[in-house]
Design brief:
Length: 217
């Protein structure tokens, strides 16, 4: 197929710990490369020197009493730098950007998880990134116990992974509520085998890509 899109698209992956985002990110990158598209992959918090520095602080389990609003401000400081230094320039070059987590994570973790009002997060979103949004998002949904079990199998727990189960229940519910309000968010049942999760996501991506082709004709 020689269908081409000239405009880069911003794809984000969301979900709790242990949902399998990293594997899906690689599969999406391969799929887009096969279409001849240039892809930038990145992550949040992180993606720039400033962002990776802030990530080190945000995930540091020794920083035990970070206030929710300071945590939110650091997430958005990293994001503002990331959007202007990496994401927007790549899109402007016509590349696709695939990002592991973005603002939906702030609504789920700092909003639903930590209890910050959504209106406060929306204010940060306006001020720091001018409400810049993904074009398509995959939300990998897993029951909390299964996600924590999977995440616990890799490495020592970071500052978020040390939270209690009820925190992650609120985060999961927050993500699912948000998916109800934004048609760009596709919820994928990540209890399925990896191949099935990938297949479902790539099916949505293929339809999205076909629709772009239609509108460029
Ligand atoms: P990471 O190791 O990337 O988690 P995972 O492998 O589960 O994706 O760590 C990022 C952590 O930061 C994760 O626990 C979620 C959290 N986070 C927020 O709380 N708010 C945000 O806005 C973002 C982007 C991440």
């Amino acid at each position: 197929m020689d269908q081409k899109t000239t405009v880069g698209q911003f794809v984000t992956l969301e979900g709790a710990e242990g949902a399998g985002k990293s594997s899906l990110l690689v599969a999406i990158e391969d799929w887009l490369n096969d279409k001849g598209l240039v892809v930038t992959t990145t992550r949040e918090p992180g993606g720039t020197a400033l962002g990776e520095g802030l990530r080190g602080l945000l995930l540091d389990p020794d920083l035990s009493n970070v206030t929710p609003i300071a945590e939110l401000a650091m997430m958005f400081a990293a994001r503002a730098q990331h959007v202007s230094e990496v994401i927007k320039p790549a899109l402007a070059r016509g590349e696709w950007v695939v990002c592991d987590r973005f603002t939906d994570s702030s609504y789920a973790y700092q909003g639903s998880g930590r209890g910050i009002d959504a209106s406060v997060i929306a204010a940060f979103e306006r001020l720091m990134i001018q409400r810049f949004q993904p074009d398509i998002t995959f939300l990998l949904d897993v029951p909390v116990d299964l996600g924590l079990k999977r995440a616990g199998e890799v490495g020592t727990p970071d500052r978020f992974e040390r939270e209690q189960k009820d925190f992650f229940e609120r985060v999961r519910a927050g993500f699912l509520d948000r998916a109800q309000t934004a048609p760009r968010i596709h919820v994928i049942d990540a209890t399925n085998a990896l191949s099935e999760v990938t297949g479902l996501a790539l099916g949505h991506l293929d339809r999205f890509w076909q629709d772009l082709g239609q509108s460029n004709r």
